[in-house]
Amino acid sequence: MELLVYMAIVGIVVVIAGEAFSNSTKFRIRTDNMIKATQEAENVAMLFKQDLEQMGAKISKESNGAAGASDVFSTSADAQNVYMNADDPDNPDLSSYNLTVGTEDDELTFRRFRYNEDGQFVAVEEIGWFVVNKTLKRYCRTISGTADADVCPSADDVDAAKAGAVDMATEVSNFRITPAMPGVKSTEISQVFPHCTSTPCTDEFRLVARDGGVFVAPAITSDESHQTVMLSGLANNYDNENNQIISGTYSKNELYAIENVDGADSWMTRCSEENNHFTLYANAEYEISFNLTDNDDNGRMFVPETDHMAVGFRTQAGAKPAGIDDFIFFPPSSATSSGIRKMQFTVPNTIENVCLAFTFACFSPVVSSGVLTISELKLKKVETANYSFNYADSKEFSIQNKERVKAFRLELQVSRGAKNGKSGETGAVNIVIPTPSNGPND
Q1: Is the whole-model pTM more than 0.85?
Q2: Could you give the CA distance from residue 346 to residue 243 in angstroms, rounded to a whole number?
Q3: Cys-Cys crosslink for 33: which of 58, 77, 356, 417, Cβ 3.0 to 4.6 Å?
Q4: pLDDT at 220 over 80
Q5: Per residue in 250-282, pLDDT tens?
């Protein structure tokens, strides 16, 4: 009887221990499969990112041929091959990708430059990622330039290239590519100021000074085209006789940018006119750009954190709107530093009815006596950042919107340990990949 009881107890212990061991083994296997699946998904995603982020690259560093001369960055004649179909006279495709949307998985083909170690052009590559029987594959073929059999062999067509594709991952259960919605669609005009209703947009503008109190009007001269404005007699806050900054209230210039329309009204009236004020929408990206030239080199005496030059926005009453500060800029410090100034920004909340304005306040001895020229002034919406994704809408992109896409979202899911009809453990990756070089303007 004691032996039977003992055997029964031992049997129960063995069953419980065996069940615990079995569960532990299953848990360990599932964990291992999950780790493997996640690692593989992440590794493949990083390879895909390295491929895709160079999409549309078309600028190379080439020697200008002169002994001892500097190299130059230029767009090679082969850049036309980076576009998917630049030769169509009626509807050219100036994007660098084609996306085929599948029932379960997508197929992405894109083009880019390949460079040597000196940054010089070697070839135009076409790269494709696609899924066959749950296996993610990658191919590369050389479109023009020098082919490299080990890096990107030459192939006459896509089918020949696909036949030599490399397996990147197996048991892929999801491979989705979503282009970002363009910040400016093909039906929209990106230029906000000078006011534009059709392309090409005008570059004509004027500057109107705010006067009275601390605000001093400088001398403002426009050329005949009204695309260039020259400023002289900027506000001076330096006492040259006593060789010190004037104490107390200081003077400054505030200049409002308006469209090129005659009028002798005040800055406040001009700012309130329809085409001179505008709305900055929340989370949209904007860019202020202008060309700045120092006509007499006095700008080289500009002292940072002492002298002040800035561009920003003002309400129709002349106040700074909440939610955005002015952008400080410097005058040219050398003959080669004249050129375009660009300031990109977003606002967290929509700001209505504001005008574009420049501010100058000089506190060092020489800068205020200088002459500055502002030209090519523009405020425009930018196609790049603030990526938003809508998978349904992106499938219907027009060719014109394709060339404005500046990012893609990758959704990749890999399974491991699948058996008996079950999917096993999965590893998933969801990343956004910027592609700033896509399109003809970048």
Answers
A1: no
A2: 42
A3: 417
A4: yes
A5: 899 999 999 988 877 789 999 999 889 999 988
Task: Locate CATH 2.60.120.260 in the chain.
Answer: 191-381
Contacts of 380 (CB under 8 A, 6+ apart): 190, 191, 192, 286, 287, 289
Type and span of the H or E element at 409: strand 407-416
How far apart, in whole angstroms, are the C-alpha atoms of residue 379 and residue 372?
Answer: 20
Report CA torsion sign: 72, 78, 82, 85.
Answer: positive
CB neighbours (10 Å) of residue 3? 7
3-state secondary structure 291-343: EEEECCCHHHHCCCCCCEEEEEEEECCCCCCCCCCCEECCCCCCCCCCEEEEE
Q: What is the distance between the alpha carbons of residues 426 and 43, in angstroms, rounded to a whole number?
A: 14
pLDDT digits (tens, 9 = 90+) for 108-120: 999 999 988 888 8
Q: Which CATH class is domain 191-381?
A: mainly beta
Angle at 252 between CA 311 and CA 301, to 5 degrees: 80
